[in-house]
Amino acid sequence: MLLRATPFKLGLFYAALCLSSGVATPYAGIWFHAHGLSGGAIGVILAAPMMARLATAPALAVWADGFRLRRTAIVIMAGVSALGYGALIVTSGFRPWLLAWFVGASAYQICPPLTDVITLRRASKEGFAYSGPRGMGSAAYILANLAAGVFIPRLGPDLVVWWTLGAGLLLVIGAVVLVPSDRVVEGGERKDPRRRFAGVRALISDPVFMLMITSVSLVQAAHGFYYAFSTLIWRAEGIGPAWSGALWGTGVAVEVAFLWFGEPLRRRLGPQRLLIAGAAGAVIRWTAFAFSPPLWLLFPLQGFHALSFTATFIASLELTQSLSPRIHASAAQAINSGLSLGVMTGLATLISGPLYDRVGGFGYLAMSASASAGLIGAVWLHRRLSRQAQPQTSGP
C-alpha cells in the first residue's frame, strides 16, 4: 500500500516535517544554552509559540482555507518557518532570538495539521492507511535524533540551527513536489470564516467537555520539562548527545509501535480508560525521572511515552469527537489542540526554566504533580460518563 504514489509521496513529506522537529525539539535548548542563555530564558523562548497556539493555530487554519489549493498555505508557512529559524543565525540576544523562534516555530506548527487534513481525506478516498505515511515521518524523526546526537559533539551546537534551516528549505520543496494539489473547496459556496468557530462558547460552558480537556491538558503539559531540559539534564549526568538521541528515538519508536499495533488494546480499554492509563503512565515516568535513573533504566522508562503521550493523545481525539456535536467538531478539536498541546504545555515549559535553574532534574516532580492532577480528573471523568451511560429507571 505504501508503495503507491500518493501515500509514498505524503510519507516523504512527513519525513521532511520530522527531520526538522526531530532535531529542533530535543536539541534547541542546547543551542540556546551554548550561546549563554539561562534555563529561564530558554523556557520563555521555547514556551512562547506554544502558549500562543490557542490563537495562532485556529487563526492560521482559517487563513489557510482562503486559498484555492490546500498545499499553498503549507508552502508559505514552510518558507516562513525557514526564515524564522534562519534568523537565529544572523541575530544575537534574547529578544531577537525570541522573535525568530516564535516566527519559525509558529509557522512550522501549522504544517503538520494542514498535512493531516490532506492525508486523511486522501486515505479515505484511495483506501490506504493514514499510519503508513505518518509512520515514515516518525521513522525520520528517530533518524534525525540519532544523527544529531552523533554529529553535534563533532560539529558543535550550531548544527542544530543549520540543520533546522536546511530542513525548512527542504520542506518548501517537498510541499510543492510531494503534496497533492487538493482544492480547499471541492464544490459549493465557501462558508463564512466566522462560522468555523461556531459553538465555542457552548463547548467551553460544558462542564464534562472541559473536565476532559483539562485532564488531558494536565497530562500533556507534564511533558514540558522533558521537552525543554531532558537533554541538558542527561548531559550533566554524563550521558552524551549520542545516547540522548537514542533515548529520544526510543520514545518515538514506542509511540509508533503503539499506533501501529495497539489497536486491540485501545478498543478493549475505550477512550476513558485509555486516558486513565496514559495519566498513570505519566505519573510513573516523571516521578522516576526526577531521581536520576541510570542509563540502562532510562530506556524502559522511555517506553512509558506510549502511555504518557500517545495513549493520552488518542484518547483525547476520541473523547473530543464523542463529547461534541458533529457541527462543532472543528471548534472542539481546536480547543483540544490549543489547550493540551499549546497553552498548557507552553505554561509548563515556561515554569520549567526556573525549575531547572533551581532544582535541576527534581523539576520532574512538578510534572509528576501535574500528571497526578490529570489522573484524578480522568478518573472523575470516567465516573461521570459511566453514570450518564447507566439506563434511567422510571418510578412506578
Oligomer: single chain
CATH architecture group name of the largest domain:
Up-down Bundle
Main pleated-sheet profile: none
Radius of gyration: 21 Å
Task: Provide the succession of SSEs.
Answer: HHHHHHHHHHHHHHHH
Structural class: mainly alpha
Count of distinct structural domains: 2
Categorize the overall geometry: globular
C-alpha termini separation: 59 Å
CATH third-tier fold name of the largest domain: Growth Hormone, Chain: A
Helical amount: over 70%
**Number of continuous helical runs:** 16
Average predicted local confidence, pLDDT: 84
Overall description:
With 396 residues, this protein is mainly alpha-helical. The protein has two domains: 184 residues, Growth Hormone, Chain: A; 196 residues, Up-down Bundle (Growth Hormone, Chain: A). Helix content is 80%, strand content 0%. It contains 16 helices and no strands. Helix 9 runs parallel beside helix 15 and helix 10 packs parallel to helix 15. The chain is globular, with a radius of gyration of 21 Å. The N and C termini lie far apart (59 Å).
Compile the SSE list and pairings:
Blueprint: H1 5-34, H2 39-51, H3 53-64, H4 70-90, H5 94-126, H6 131-155, H7 159-177, H8 200-204, H9 207-221, H10 224-236, H11 241-261, H12 263-289, H13 295-302, H14 305-323, H15 329-359, H16 364-389
Keywords for this entry:
396 residues, mainly alpha, Growth Hormone, Chain: A, 80% helix
Brief overview, please?
The chain is mainly α and 396 residues long. It has helices at 5-34, 39-51, 53-64, 70-90, 94-126, 131-155, 159-177, 200-204, 207-221, 224-236, 241-261, 263-289, 295-302, 305-323, 329-359, 364-389. The chain has two domains: 1-184, Growth Hormone, Chain: A (Up-down Bundle); 195-390, MFS general substrate transporter like domains (Growth Hormone, Chain: A), CATH 1.20.1250.20.
